[in-house]
Every structure is written in structure tokens, then in C-alpha cells.
Design brief:
- It is a single chain.
- This protein is mainly alpha-helical and 128 residues long.
- It has five helices and two strands; from the N terminus they run H-E-E-H-H-H-H.
- Strands 1-2 form a two-stranded antiparallel sheet.
- It holds the Pfam family Ribosomal_S18.
């Protein structure tokens, strides 16, 4: 009879659901494991690799500029976070005003650099 009372006392009812509050149950595994199906947190390329953007690093900044028009790509194309995108734009303008980067065309020396993103496939679709 005492075993029956012990089993009944280990269950607490909350609404229609039974909640097991007894810690003497040895069948339940006790381990701390992270969710193996949890997706990796998305980060931009510069934040992931902890790259500091500087106006003197023209090779890095030229990858965020169109090779044909010199236009700075938007964050929906580059995949950068808002803070890094604003910093990249500010540093490109600073490098252009210092004469380190051309304003309208990309420097031909940087045409063969590896691409950080695909400008033809933006993250967010645009209207054209």
C-alpha cells in the first residue's frame, strides 16, 4: 500500500496534464545535451571571421563594389549585417576620397580575387 501512495504522490496534476515531480525515477536519463538539430546562427562574413574593415584595405573593400559601375552593393546582395554594411560604405567613401580606390570602375588588379558573395543571386529578391 505504501508503494501505491508513493507513486500517487509523485504525480502532480496541472489542468489535464500530469507532471512528474518525483526525482527518484531512475529510468529518466539525466544529462545536459544541446539540441543536435539546432541551426547555426547566421552571421555576416565580416562578423564570422572577425575582420576589421579599414579604408587602407582596398583589396577587401573592392569586393563590395561593382566592377562595371563602381556602385557599392547593398546589404541584400552582400549579406552583411546593418552595422558592417554602414561601416563598409563609409570606409569605401573614405578610401575613394583619399585616392586609394577608383570611383567609377573597379581596379583591374582585383578582378581575379575570390568572391565573398554572388552578386547575381541576391539574398533578398529585387524588382528587376
Amino acid at each position: 500500500m505504501s508503494l501505491l501512495l508513493r507513486r500517487i504522490s509523485c504525480h502532480f496534476y496541472k489542468g489535464n496534464q500530469a507532471w512528474r515531480g518525483c526525482s527518484s525515477n531512475k529510468d529518466v536519463p539525466d544529462f545536459d545535451m544541446q539540441n543536435p538539430f539546432e541551426k547555426e546562427k547566421l552571421q555576416c562574413v565580416l562578423c564570422k571571421h572577425k575582420i576589421q574593415v579599414d579604408y587602407k584595405n582596398v583589396k577587401l573593400l573592392s569586393q563590395f563594389q561593382s566592377p562595371y559601375t563602381g556602385r557599392i552593393y547593398g546589404k541584400h546582395i552582400t549579406g552583411l549585417c546593418t552595422n558592417q554594411q554602414a561601416l563598409v560604405e563609409k570606409e569605401i567613401v573614405k578610401a575613394q576620397s583619399a585616392g586609394l580606390m577608383p570611383t567609377y570602375l573597379k581596379d583591374p588588379h582585383f578582378f581575379e580575387d575570390p568572391e565573398l558573395f554572388d552578386a547575381e543571386k541576391p539574398i533578398r529578391p529585387h524588382r528587376f
